[in-house]
Each structure stands twice: as C-alpha cells, then as structure tokens.
Amino acid sequence: MADQHSPRSLIVTLYGAYGRERPGPLAVAELIRLLGALGVDAPSVRSSVSRLKRRGLLVPARTEDGAAGYGLSPDARQLLEDGDRRIHDRRTPLLSDGWVLAVFSVPEAERGKRHLLRSRLTRLGFGSTAPGVWIAPARLYEETRHTLRRLRLDPYVELFRGEHLGFAATAEAVATWWDLGGIAKRHEAFLDAQEPVLDSWTSGREPGPEEAYRDYLHALDSWRRLPYADPGLPMELLPEGWPGGRSAVVFAALHEVLRDTGALFAQN
Fold it and tell me: For 96, what's the count of Cα atoms within 13 Å in the CB-facing half-sphere?
C-alpha cells in the first residue's frame, strides 16, 4: 500500500466519498481546503490534480460562480461505481458462485501490454493459475469487463465462467493462486490502525464534522484497496482465523459512525 494517503490517492478518495454528490465540479480552492484538513499542502494538491487530469480521471470545468474546478470523467465515474460494489459489498461469498477465468495471449511485439494485463488483473483481485491464465470469483466479471474495455485490452483476453474440478483440492489450490498470508497481513494492518479509531468514536465521543471527515477519509483511503487485494473468497477456502471479516465489520462501523457527519464539513 505504498500509495496510501498520498495526495493523489486522497483526492480520488474524496471524490468517491463526497465529490460525486455535488451537482457540478469541485473548485480548486475547495479541493485545497478539503485536502488541507488532511494535512496536504496546496502545491501538492495542484500537482496531484494535474496528474489525475493527465490520466483522464479529472476534467477541468467551471463552477456555477465561474471558479476553476475539476469534475470526474466518465471513466472515473465508472471506476468509482465499480469501487462502490467492492468497498461496501457485505454479501457472503459462496463456493457455488463459481469462478471467472481470464485467458490472454499478447504478441511479443506488444509485450508491454502483457505486463499491463498482468498488473491490472492483479489489481482487480485475480490470482494466477498458470502463465496467461488468471482466476477470480465470478462476481468480479462485470468490473473486469469494464476495466479491460476501458484500457483497450479486451482484444487480447477471453473470459470464461466455471467451477474448479481438481486435481488439487480447491482450498489447496487457492493458496497457490493468491498470497493469502500477505493479504491477511494487510487486513491486520488495517485493524491495527482503525480499530482504535472506531473505539474512540463508539465510547461516548461526539464526532465533530471536521474530525469525522478526517478520520473517515483516512479510513476509506486505507480500506478501499483491501477489497481489491482480497478477492473475497468463500470462508471454507480460507485459513482458520482469517481477519478479513473483522476488518470489513470495522470499516462498515466507521462508515456508519463518521460518513454523514463528515459530509457536513465536506459540503460546507
């Protein structure tokens, strides 16, 4: 999570949490105010906005009063909508849901796209079963399709749905397809950082808008990567004592306690 709490990451988190609710773009001055509450200085905000603009995620626009601002591009809105399903999905994964397979072949002359495909599938939560063959829970199909089309990688990929029939037991196989130990450590790091925050807000403390906004944005910025690193495997395939369920409960509680109060500061 090297990019966690970077100015660029916090800007994306801000738009996902509160920016989409506004009828128009966010003024640059407002971005500086809101990121300043998170400890980000104005030059860092401006340079990060420029990078997000170059990536096609933010588009320049004027607010109703004529101030310079930035809104979300259609691609960015799709990314955030896909992210909503990951971030707030509390459904219990079932083994009977099956799997989605991504099988790709990239010509040697375009090997840069091979690297892009691997990195993007990894970021979507896929595990690797063999060279050019990647697997994820079937519920990730729609987001995978959106992402590969947006990046114009779909001509190189075929997607399939199915079940795992062997020869290894599925619980043994998933331990080779994903780094479950590494994913567990990320959940534990989230819990170490955010359980004390939740305890402080649920022990009689009244959240003020700015403090609630700050704690919520930091929690969301930390959490929103985890549902991508962790593909959401059925419990029967996971090691005993898996921390993913507990970290999801902690984030959901923080969302419930802080999100709306933080909006009073974000939309002031």
Answer: 1
The residues that bridge with 70 in the sheet, in sequence order, are: 26, 60
DSSP 24: S
Residues 190-248 pLDDT 10s: 999 999 999 999 887 777 899 999 999 999 999 998 988 898 899 899 999 999 989 99
Two tokens at 263? 């909006």
Could you tell me which of 264, 263, 238 has the C-alpha nearest to residue 17? 263
131-165 core/surface letters (b: 16 or more CB in 10 A; e: else): ebebbbbbbbbebbeebbebeebeebbeeeeeebe
Q: State which fold the 7-77 domain adopts.
A: Arc Repressor Mutant, subunit A (1.10.10)
Give the integer Cα–Cα distance in Å for 143 and 125.
11
Q: What gap in Å lies between CA 121 and CA 53, rounded to an integer? A: 24
Sign for the CA dihedral angle at 161, 142, 149, 217 comes to negative
pTM: 0.84
Report how far apart the first and last C-alpha atoms of the chain are (Å, whole number): 31
Domain parsing of the chain, residue ranges: 7-77, 99-162, 179-266
Positive or negative, the CA dihedral 51, 82, 226, 258 is positive
Residue type at 90?
R
